[in-house]
Amino acid sequence: RMFNYSRGGMYFESNFAPEIGTEIFIGVENSPYTSGHDVYRAKVIWHAGLDGGKTFFFHGIGVKYF
Questions:
Q1: Which tens digits make up the pLDDT trace of 42-56?
Q2: Within 13 Å of residue 13, how many CA atoms lie on the same side as its CB?
Q3: What would the pLDDT profile of 15-43 be if each residue is shown by its tens digit?
Q4: Of 20, 2, 26, 14, which Cα lies nearest the Cα of 50?
Q5: What letter would DSSP give residue 36?
Q6: Residue 2: CA atoms inside 13 Å, Cβ hemisphere, count?
Q7: Could you give the CA distance from residue 17 to residue 47 in angstroms, rounded to a whole number?
């Protein structure tokens, strides 16, 4: 689930946490920046474990686009 989205990066929560430095591709439907579907190449710059009481997911992940 995506929570923070900008032109430079993104924060999302997931049950899977890629290692820091991993390159991933992210698809965003109905992007606020374009009229269609955006695909971003990004690098994981941080991740943290989440308290299960406040969210349905186990990991918070921050990525930077490149």
A1: 999 999 999 767 788
A2: 11
A3: 999 999 999 998 878 776 677 777 889 99
A4: 14
A5: S
A6: 11
A7: 7
Residue 63, exposed/middle/buried by CB under 10 A (0-12, 13-18, 19+)? buried
Q: Tokens at residue 56, please?
A: 């349905």
DSSP 56: S
Nearest to 15 by CA among 63, 64, 60, 65: 60
Between CA 63 and CA 19 the distance in angstroms is 11
**Which residues are CB-neighbours of 18 under 8 A, at least 6 positions away?**
24, 44, 47, 61
